[in-house]
Amino acid sequence: MTASTTETEAQRIAADQALVAKFLKDTTLFLAPDPEIMNEHDLAPRTAEEEDALARFSDPHTISRIRDRVQAGANEGFEMVEQMGAAPGAKWGDLITGIYTASGDLALCSAGGVLIFSALVHHPIKFIIKNWINDPTVGVRDGDGFIHNDSRYGNIHNTDQSMIVPVFWEGKLVCWVASTVHEGENGAIEPGGMPSMAESSFDEGLKMSPFRVVENFEIKKDILTFLQNSVREPKLQYEDMKVKLFACLRIKQRIEEILVSDGPMALTASLRGTLENVRKEVKRRLTEWPDMSVRTYMIQDSTLRENCLIKINLKVTKTGDRLIFDFRGSSPEFTNRANNTVLAGTKGMISQLFLCFIWPDLPRNQACFAPMEVITDPCSTVAASYAAPNSQSLMSIFTVFSASQHALGKFLYSCPEKYTKVIAPWFNMINTFIWGGLSQHGETLGNLCADLNGMGGGARSESDGQHGLSPIFATMSDIGEQELNEEEVPFLQLVSKKLTRDTQAPGKYRGGMGYQMMVATKDSDQWGFMTTTVGAKVPPIQGLFGGYACGTYPLSKVRNVDVYNVMRDNPEQFRHSIEEIMNNQPFPGAKYTTHHMGMGFELSKRGELYMISQGSGAGYGDLLERDPALVISDIEEDLISKPVARRLYKVAFDEDTLAIDVEGTKALRQAEREDRKKRGKPFKEFVKTWSKPLPPANLPFYGCWGDDVSVLYAGGPHDRRDANKPKPIFMRHPKDVKIEQLEAKLLALTGKTY
Amino acid sequence: MRRVSVDIGGTFTDCFVVWDDKYIEAKALTTHQNLALGFNEALGKACSELHIDLEEILSGVDSVRYATTLGTNALIEHRGPRIGMLVTAGFESTVPLSRGRGYGEGLDDLGKADLPGANRPDPLVLPHMIAGIRERLDAVGDVVMALDEDDVRIQIRKLVDKGAQALVVALVNSVVNPMHEQRIEEIFLKEYPPQLLGAIPVILSHQVAGRKGEYVRATSAIVDGYLHSTMYHALSSLEQNLRAHHYEKPMLVIHNSGGMAQLNSTDALQTIHSGPVSGISASEHLARECDLGNVIATDMGGTSYDIGIVVEGGIKHYDFNPVIDRWLVSVPMVHLVTLGAGGGSIATYDRMYNTVKVGPQSAGSDPGPACYDRGGLQATVTDADLVLGYLDPKNYAGGSIPLNPRRSTRAIEDALCDQLDLTVTDAALLIREKVDDNMANGLFTELRARGYDPKEFTMLAYGGNGPLHACGIARNLGINKILAPPMSSVFSAVGAGNMHQLHIHEKSLFMVLYDSNTRKIFDDYSRFNAIVSELREAGTQDLLRQGVSRGEIRHSLELDMRYGNQLVQTTAVIDFHEVHSASDVMKIIAQFSNDYGKRFGEGSQAPEAGIRINTIRVAAYVQLQTVKFDQIKPRAVGERLQPPAPSSHRKCSFVGQSGALETPVWLKSAIEPGVEIKGPAIVSSEVTTYLVDPGWTLVSAAQGAIWFLRDAT
Predict the structure, then answer these.
(1) What is the distance in angstroms between the Cα of B205 and the nearest Cα belonging to chain A?
(2) Domain range list for chain A
(3) Could you report the predicted ipTM of this complex, rounded to two decimals?
(4) Do A567 and B353 touch (CB under 8 A)?
């Protein structure tokens, strides 16, 4: 064969390939999430316009001035959404606004709010750019607005809705602005927008790939009506679409003012220059970290439907200016459970970790996480496939967050220049009530209590954690005012904010504690609650450097009682703590039960009690080193009981005056240290007795076991899988399981099958 | 009119005396150990100028009015009594948890973003001084659980035994039904009657704040309780001082609501920020008298930059949940934003962007800027101003603070020059540009968030550094007119002299004007009218108690309204106070829609989601005679006077100009009204420096007012 023949053959093959590619493109049945977009979190390559702009506007001071104005615009938009928004999420800080480059990269977002939203919205923008701009049936024009909520196209879960607005200047697209809010209700199988009962994505409510819903700056009524018709709260759907649109338009106006004063090139240079500067700084900071690997894991103790052990496995490796998050060995995805997350959610949450807990001084944009690398198994619960439901992705992304926070604490400890304090893991679960039904005003509602924002802070290297301070996903968020809530919903929080005694995570410095909540429906016959967290049996976080994890927090219920009658007729029976009610069982004839925290939506009767507690951040350091004065202070504030102070912290004190017996404490602690030595074993011996070759048979376990991440277990030692050859995991309906158990009991009792 | 008004600040006590047609400005250092001494000194200076003795003035004036930052300082310095607190059982941690976000209230963006470093401020009530009381009311005020009076007695006793020096009672839903709070007060007074030595004041939350929100109301009551004795003793001693000097009338205290009242009708909380609020009030009065249109009032001092908005049509901008120090409260206060930008703001190198960062850290007044030569080593805005030639090192602050330019040069070199590869002058220009940008962004956000265009405003610039930076700030905003107001050295005291007696009463409620579910329009007119009437009467009684006659009393009505289930409460000012028909309701809805559209954008209104009133607020006030400003509008171009010969020249560098420019300098005392001076130029006085940038023209006006007008391009 001659060279020219080979060349001709190659040309023919190339032409064939191009034809086939064109045919396939022209005959695409469905524009599913694009892996090319969804797997990429680094900055888009510089465009020709950006090259040109950066060449012409290199003065950092001009860029800085424009950036400040863009930032002011984002902040203004944020304030508008927070003020005008109708969703509890908007009112209490679960929102964000951002400005994106023409290529879709997040350049700056508002100073307040939930960063992960903005870290994810670049995906749907890139989808719009790739698929809609040049599509004759869609297109992108000035005055358009695109809505989106489907996490598979770039989101946490589909309870969060975004409005995305392009900004044009003299006919040319110069950037995008977007606003995202945790809206709550989305028409899913359960009210409130985060259904744990969802067994497929079709149970999860509205799944909006990015589409145009605004033309000529007005919301299209036909589409609005369809969306309102698809959810339980048509009023909320309408109000917040409008709010997000007007916030975007306000930010757009600010951008246009910059375009008038400085021109599009200066804006482009400022947005791109900001991203590149931050990326460079991140790389520089990484070089200061020690080269090493840290391995850790977190456990989810349920799928929210059944108890089980779901492993989030992590190895973080730092070499030079590279930082690699390796999640291989984590649990495979669940085919019919909603606690999976797409890969973008995993990355978004680690990005959040960097911006709020590692380098809070950095500008809030996509470049902060851009240089990091993430490795996962295919179809992992931390990188789920298209088919897997993910409305409860928080379970996975929050444990991803905590595993990452736990590992990075060890890097930061050894890092010479710190940008904030070294901290033990923050509490990571949204221990709150999701609610829904018919309100006392006749409105159908579905949403949640802002108490999800009250997670306890982790202990620091030199001080205790802060109680109920903030969720891991936002700053300056709010746990709300109960008086305002009670105006709109038909239940009372009979205990609303009361720190839960003896639930702290001990350490030299203890974690900040959570508080208990006790709710009961009052003024509606159609009202119910659900809870959607893990951590009722296994703590979802770990302590740092010898500090302990938090305790576990179950759901407690009291049925067959109307506590409002009790409070009216026998008020002396009522008690204001879960501890007293569950231990003393003060209401005659009532039924007292405890449960895991994955309670599916349940209609409640008037006066029945549902009781939960927010959780504590993890402890830091050895509890025997805790200053006895701090222990006594915790007793005075009713954070711990006296027996706990003695038993756990080994502090000797006077029962009445709480005066510390210094010598007695020394002796108690010395004795405990001696006991530790006696209880201790050489490491090899410990490993021999502790380490088992296989996961237990009596506990459903998911993930790798030991160091070998190539094999995953899916329910126990009997189900081994090659990590690279995913297979479905179908969980049985808990009611079927229960029926089967009851039928077996009946069979045993009666000898008959029914 | 004869009147004395005083603004007692952290450093100076400013005094403004109106004696018939004479307006006298006087200042003295604040004497923290006994405020009366500073007051007497300042007033004594005014007396000398008038050639009248102090007793004669005090016996001859119609009123003496005080604005003071005393309360703010007491909070910052954490000087207050040990407070005991009773709350609804089950809400014991509401205050300590501070809605989660309390860690960041009053901090800058970085403080808010840094969660590992987050610390709540030291509490005003220690957690173990908070006790839960067995009682519960629901959202409409019905009793869910009756008050357990025995429990009340036990908990009070425990708190007193633990050393409570003041008692705050903050029960859930007490604003819709105060009976449990009132009953606790009765029980307490019976157990601890006020005639006992060491009597403990009791503060009921519903009396301090009338709106829903158990946390913000509790905080309001706590701050009030915390400041109560400090303010009471300080203000009482001032009143005694007045009595000793033959002042027989009631002493009036300026409130942060923009009004004033007698001492015995003043809550401590109402005095916080009353000084800056008086400045905004003076701006409002000046704008109205001199027909200035929309005005943005700015006060740039050594550490902070206060911003207030005054617009035509009398719309007041209030904060209904202002942050005082680090505490979120729920008393209506004239909207005031404070940015961390002043002469003492520190400039540092911004490594990430290879540029300069200014603030929010400040060198304050101690050690102060490097040029103060008091040990400060960091480069500040004042150091940049000195390097650029704007300040006279020998005559800064009337010569009271000698400046050392070498210190400024060294500080800027150390902080910036090497990293940025710039000369000292260029680095100083960058500092100047950055701080002006920061302030312009703050102003921009303030105005834009309320739907206003900066170009439609006149900027009022006062405070020691205001006229020095005004042109730079205005340039960034597209503002063409700046006014350094008359009597600017005591401008807040002037504002105090113009206040009216005013009391605000408000009520939280759930009043649906349009129900989107049933599509019904509000028709319970008697309920609306009864509430308005009750609030009007409460304000009327406040003023009657102070000796005002009923005929002089005026009322204004405001409604906080919202669409659907929003958080925002846009305030609509309603000019009729009774509702009798659907058309009246429609007028309210239309007014709300108009105000909402202005703020958030026309078309953003969402009446389809329903319309509610959340708060009804009535201000009762009496209009008193006010200070007269002369006509201070700048003369027409052809009528302006030539300036006298400048007293000196200095080389000054300006943003956007290459090389230093020979800049003429005048003393303000040499400039008569109507004089025009083209920039670049400097006019200096004992209290400030008026810097005229190239492209701007200074025009002097009556009563010492100075205009900066941007040249037409």
Answers:
(1) 14
(2) 31-281, 288-420+701-754, 423-626, 627-680
(3) 0.92
(4) no
